[in-house]
Amino acid sequence: MPHHRTKPITNNPPRYAVMGNPIAHSLSPYIHAAFARQAGVQLIYEALCIEPDSLASGIADFFATGGLGLNITAPFKEAAFAQASVRTPRCQLAGAANTLWWQAGQLHADNTDGAGLVADISRHRTLKGLQVLLLGAGGAARGIIEPLFEAGIAGLTCVNRTVQRAYDLQKTFPRLRVEKEMAHAMRYDLIVHATSAGQNLTQPAWDSRCLHPLTLAYDLFYNRTQPTAFVRWAKESGCEAMDGLGMLVEQAAEAFWRWHGVQPDTAAVLKQLRECK
Ligand code: NDP
Asked: Is the dihedral angle over the CA atoms 142, 191, 151, 19 positive or is it negative?
């Protein structure tokens, strides 16, 4: 389903792409092609594998040869942020960029990951008034903190393996609480798993004393064919749980809206991704 090409061939139809490394398994070309079909927009969306020392020249070449919009994925989001001259406020706070475009002679950057998470969760719960636990303090965690606060959550507590990294986040986001462990006196309405441990964790490393029967557990990590370790743990602990495939589709929709001015039907594309094993 996802396709991979290293060299752009044509500027007509308009060219878009995602850059990362590795990139062959990226779902972004499939998602953007599906959005384009919905909207009746002609485009090419490629997956470009970039060597770590070639990001700056890769971005420059892409736009110099007529490319119109670029998504950036691991491990380049921070480096892409550094390349941009103009950043949206949420991108500035995230310190990382996943959406680039060229406008009035300058490279512009946005970060749509947090908005993607909020949009996906909002399909299932209203975020307003929720007590939230954030597991992880890496790049993804940084990008979702402000959008969660903007959505009206009542409080956000961060627990990270390296606690100092959580305190570093608190310097940027003073409303963030930091705890050394999951198991303290609090039970949370929403638990967001934002570590990169993902599927490698076979033994649950999580403490179910943080849960109550209506807690929603959300794993940023996703797997289209089987439940992630975190989703399995949460469901076995009696909670509703979902993985981050919906967030991936929603962050792509934000980028699509930015580039094409059209809001895609994300539920339809998410359903196709889940059903296409
Ligand atoms: P980073 O490398 O920036 O951060 C990694 C985080 O995971 C750190 O907090 C790190 O803790 C923690 N960690 C790593 N290994 C372990 C472990 N064994 N036990 C406990 N904690 C661990 O990664 P990102 O923030 O960029 O990505 C995090 C996850 O989010 C990834 O799975 C990524 O695929 C997913 N993601 C999903 C998106 C979506 O659209 N669904 C979008 C963006 C990201 P420490 O500080 O101690 O090293």
From this structure: positive
What are the tens digits of pLDDT across the range 102-146?
A: 999 999 999 999 999 999 999 999 999 999 999 999 999 999 999
| Amino acid found at 150 | E
Q: What is the DSSP string of 199-232?
A: GG--S----GGG--TT-EEEESS--SSS--HHHH
Measured CA to CA, the distance from residue 11 to residue 224 in angstroms comes to 32
Residues with CB under 6 Å of ligand 1 are 74, 113, 116, 136-141, 160-162, 165, 194-198, 220-222, 244, 247-248, 251
Tell me the best of 192, 196, 228 to mutate to test the pocket of ligand 1, counting ligand atoms within 8 Å of each CB and taking the most: 196
Look at residue 204 and tell me whether its pLDDT is greater than 70.
Answer: no
